[in-house]
Automatic annotation (TrEMBL):
The keyword Disulfide bond does not apply. This is Aquaporin. The keyword Transmembrane applies. It comes from Tetranychus urticae. The chain crosses the membrane at residues 46-70, 82-100, 128-148, 168-190, 202-222, 242-262.
């Protein structure tokens, strides 16, 4: 192993990990803005990200809608538990973000994709193909759930059902506000100007869970046009379906724009600033050295451990 040189209270390995993480976030923020669409389609990363979005949305819709299904063989007396549904939504999103975040950003949601589009974090081509992949994955997830559930006992197959006393405008308001909060949380979590305050996946998953607890009794807590599309397409039920597209998308775009132009100063963040921030952390007597987990860190696609090992990589 390379001898550890100390940067303040940080070892060289921990310093390198911190540097890679922050550079990676800078690249994620600015990379798509400079890459032309003609170059983008030629990269393997682009097509891998489309597959990741399709798979992640497939799993999300299958899991979230499955908790609405009666597995006892009877629909009589079956009432989906809002707490269970909220936990499923939040934990599923946390898991999928952890699994696919480094590949595609783990949007799993056309509304999130639209927010990244209007803030110029992704290209129009990528956003269109993301939404197509997400929609296809959602329909496939709902179709598989319909096929494996007890015949005649699928119920509404997890379609987001609003309270009967609410009109389209009221449903729109609930979906708009709660989607705004979710997307604002995502942008805040990805802000490199803030110190890490925990696992990003858990933070995003918690936002989905809390908003689901609030929205389920009112709008049905979709927050996701693809999640609304999947079961609606399979069951051919389209009541208020337009609301579950327009409200989340407008709410998410507003959240992205507000954070980008009011709260986010990453545009002025340079590599020199990143290194200076880490040096400041190194000299902070109260700074806790992060745990080194080489297997989860990569540089240009290669394991970080390769760069910390004296043996040359073949």
């Amino acid at each position: 192993m390379v001898p550890q040189r100390e940067f303040g209270t940080l070892s060289s390995e921990s310093f390198l990990i911190s540097l890679v993480e922050r550079i990676d976030k800078l690249l994620l923020h600015d990379g798509f803005r400079t890459k032309k669409m003609s170059q983008e389609v030629k990269s393997l990363e682009f097509w891998r990200s489309l597959i990741a979005e399709c798979l992640s949305t497939f799993f999300y819709v299958f899991l979230v809608c499955a908790v609405n299904i009666s597995w006892t063989g009877s629909l009589i007396g079956h009432t989906p538990n809002w707490i269970v549904m909220s936990l499923t939504s939040g934990l599923a999103m946390a898991i999928l973000t952890q699994c696919f975040g480094h590949i595609s950003g783990s949007h799993v949601n056309p509304a999130v994709t639209c927010a990244f589009l209007v803030t110029r974090n992704i290209t129009p081509l990528r956003s269109i193909l993301y939404i197509i992949a997400q929609s296809g994955g959602a329909i496939a997830g709902a179709a598989l759930l319909y096929g494996v559930s007890i015949p005649g006992h699928q119920g509404a197959l997890g379609i987001a059902l609003a309270h009967e006393a609410l009109g389209a405008g009221q449903i729109f308001g609930v979906e708009f506000v709660l989607t705004f909060l979710i997307v604002f949380t995502i942008f805040a979590t990805l802000d490199i100007n803030r110190k890490s305050m925990g696992n990003d996946s858990i933070t995003i998953g918690s936002a989905y869970m809390v908003c689901s607890l609030t929205g389920l009794p009112a709008s049905g807590a979709s927050f996701n046009p693809a999640r609304a599309l999947g079961p609606a397409f399979v069951m051919n039920k389209w009541k208020h379906h337009w609301v579950y597209w327009i409200a989340p998308i407008t709410g998410s775009m507003l959240a992205g724009l507000i954070y980008e132009f009011i709260f986010d100063s990453r545009k002025s963040k340079t590599l020199r600033d990143v290194i200076d921030d880490i040096d400041k952390d190194c000299n902070d007597d109260h700074y806790d050295e992060p745990e080194v987990k080489m297997t989860n860190k990569t540089i240009m696609g290669f394991p970080l451990s390769d760069y910390l090992n004296t043996q040359p990589r073949v």
